[in-house]
Amino acid sequence: MQNLRERTARQIADTKQFAVQGVVKSFIEVADNLDLAIGSVPEKELEGGEDVDVERALTLLKRLRDGVVMTESIMLKLLEKEGVRKYDPQGEPFDPNLHNAMFRVPNSGVKSGHVAHVIKNQTIRPRPQATANPQPLRRSTAAPQPSVELAYSTGWSGASLHGSIAGQEWQTLGLKPVVSGAGAWHHLNLPVPAQGNPPTPLLEFVMTNGASGWDKPTEGGHYTIAAPGRYCLQHGRVESVAHSRRLLLVTDLDDTLVGDDEATAAFRDWWLARAMPAGARLVYNTGRALGLFEDLLCAKRGLLPEPDLLLSAAVRDAAYAALAAVGRDAMHFRPPAEQNEHKVTCGVHVGALARVAQDVRERLARHGVQLRLVASGVGDWRFLDLVPMAAGKRQAMDFAAETLGFRHEDIVAAGDSGNDVDMLEGAPAAIVVANAQPDLLEWVERSRSPGVIRTRGSRAWGILEGLERLGCGFQPPTL
User: Residue ranges of the Sucrose phosphatase-like domain (predicted)?
Assistant: First the structure.
């Protein structure tokens, strides 16, 4: 463990020193071209006067526009090189491997399970979405169809399986990238018959990047799988991971996964080396507004894995907007102890109460979010609670499990404060890190649940310790 800590510390230092150098250098060309575009309109040409040469002005305007368009083209190419590209999924079926759902929208006029609203236009990762769903979530009681779940490690940006199921005609099936896999992992869930037709294997296949790249066994021939189950393909070998626990990790961020860079980096290494081959998925259940989460992800780039699903505080964004509209003399946020991830409590002057309530309702209604506003108190200042319908960390956690295709018993939750009680109480296995706040420790003492693990390690070290004690097999990765 000490060697892992020392190696992680060196990796963090190198990341901080060198991570942005290449990106910054590449953007020097953008700055140069922008300077040329600005210089195409001499400053003296901007001096006012009674006589304006319209033809000359149009010429200068066209020159400026051409320069800006060229600069934009160069910038977009550089961004695409770094993995940033424009993408408009509105109307597409919701795909948790490509999209992050923020909330479900009732009566949106969009087919159930499809993207109804795009909250961000450009991101450096799969973007948050709102999905259409006019009906509540329902758990299926039908027996699951046999399938082959394949986790594939590759340096290709895209990967496909070319193969035959139970001796049938060969076909090509695309794999989906796993967001928390840092671009190195892809996934396929393939329905198959309950068994093959001996001596024909259940699944015979090779991998391809869709161009000239092919991945076949080093000894020749094709990869084969004999029975339904979970498998991992890496380094030219197919291995069963059926013995590994299915894991959906739902964790808080601040002072749980984040707060100790060495611990966060160690978690990242374990996640990529151990959790990814077993088909695990990562969900962040945070009280951070979306913008603050993006800031954190940028600040911890290279240390903090990107989540397969983000459950964030959409309501808080609307409250901040209302605060900006009425001013701090008429509205303020109540102390942190009165807040949680799915409830925002404000103090609002009675004279501004109606305006604030209307403003918040209208802002969230534009995204189809149904909201309960609960006003209480007497006198000049009132309490105003902003609560989405059917909101709560437990409901959000169950939504994540169903969306990502996991059973309830696959969930492991981790947290550090009383705000996490709802989530931890609803999880079959819960990790309470050593730096947990007193209100959460009081709940641990009261509940005495056998599913709750109180760790000796703090923050991400505690998460790793808890996962090891749950049989998820923490081992330092071989680098």
Answer: 246-312, 331-469
